[in-house]
Design brief:
358 residues, nine-stranded mixed β-sheet, globular
Length: 358
């Protein structure tokens, strides 16, 4: 009995000591936990939270500079978000036309697409349309000067209020040239020619003032339309023209450079606001970082594509200084067209030109 009482006493003392120790001490890791908090992106990935899905959709084909840069963007965003963001790419208009995609964004879908001022002008910010006007810019440096201006930030805020958030504006889409079924050297040569353009009043008027008959059409329908004689040509940057194989049915390229086409990536404002501040920051930063890659891809592709077009039997013509001036003079009518500038802020053309030439 004495032994039993002794063992019971020892057990009671041990339990009491253990309870006092548990109540009076902190876990060893707690002292440093405030110093080594994981980022919210890493934490959500570690906790097994469902990653945010972003669907990046565009009409460019696999292998084009835009597509290559989007693959870089996907890799950057997924790595830097620690797995809290996942990207799916949809080239070749797999998710629909640009208009369809923008409608999806405005409805709150997690979709991102490439778009330009011509489309934004029809989405509540008419002044944005001027950036796609023919022969507005003399150099790429002028494009970047405009995107960094207070005027551009004001337009971007108006667009955000209208439901679309611009992520990056530093992507070169390319200088836009015209591929046709017969030679073009001056605006006079375009008279009566049906030239495919995107379905936007800015695109349409931009070619109308140059003397052509602009014909809105989805890019995916252009090859057959050229074959059947429905249209006589189209305009786009060289990599887009080549990768669409349009040189198989149209053999004359004029390097008219009617638009220096920088482009932007946009998502719905509602979707953007649903992200954490860290995810928003990562989305913008990686979009701009991928834009630098894109511009390198574009520069390399342009020279390579010229050589390939020549090898495919395309006659490339570069207008003389006098002929380029004829195009520029014809383009001035665009900035006086009431259907275009009637919706603009008074003096917009002068305002933008002042920024470019400052």
């Amino acid at each position: 009995m004495k032994l039993k009482a002794f063992l019971s006493s020892v057990l009671a003392i041990s339990l009491t000591a253990g309870l006092l120790s548990a109540c009076g001490s902190k876990p060893a890791s707690s002292a440093s936990s405030s110093q080594q908090q994981p980022s919210s992106a890493s934490q959500s990935a570690a906790e097994g939270a469902e990653p945010v899905l972003l669907q990046i959709a565009y009409e460019n084909n696999p292998g084009e500079p835009i597509d290559l840069a989007c693959n870089e963007w996907k890799k950057l965003l997924e790595e830097k978000s620690g797995g809290s963001m996942k990207v799916e790419l949809f080239p070749s208009s797999q998710l629909g036309s640009k208009t369809d995609l923008i409608d999806q964004m405005l409805a709150g879908a997690p979709v991102c697409t490439i778009a330009d001022g011509a489309f934004y002008a029809e989405r509540g910010v008419p002044d944005f349309g001027i950036v796609f006007g023919p022969y507005l810019f003399d150099s790429w440096d002028e494009c970047w000067k405009l995107t960094k201006s207070d005027w551009y930030q004001e337009q971007s805020k108006k667009l955000e209020d209208a439901g679309l958030k611009i992520l990056a504006s530093n992507w070169v889409y390319g200088e836009r040239h015209t591929l046709t079924k017969k030679p073009v050297h001056t605006p006079d040569d375009l008279k009566g020619m049906k030239i495919r353009v995107a379905n936007s009043i800015i695109f349409i008027k931009g070619f109308d003032v140059l003397g052509a008959t602009p014909t809105p059409m989805a890019l995916g329908d252009v090859y057959t339309a050229l074959q059947q004689g429905t249209i006589d040509g189209l305009e786009n940057p060289l990599p887009v023209l080549y990768n669409g194989k349009f040189q198989e049915v149209a053999k004359y390229l004029v390097l008219d450079g009617h638009v220096k086409n920088f482009t932007t990536w946009t998502v719905g404002t509602d979707f953007f606001n649903s992200l954490t501040p860290e995810q928003q920051k990562l989305l913008v930063e990686t979009a701009e970082e991928a834009g630098v890659k894109n511009n390198d891809f574009q520069a390399a592709a342009e020279q390579e594509v010229r050589e390939k077009l020549i090898a495919d039997g395309v006659t490339i013509y570069e207008p003389t200084a006098e002929e380029k001036e004829l195009f520029r003079q014809a383009a001035l009518k665009f900035y006086e067209d009431p259907e275009i500038c009637g919706a603009w802020t008074d003096g917009l053309y002068d305002t933008v030109n002042a920024i470019l030439k400052a």
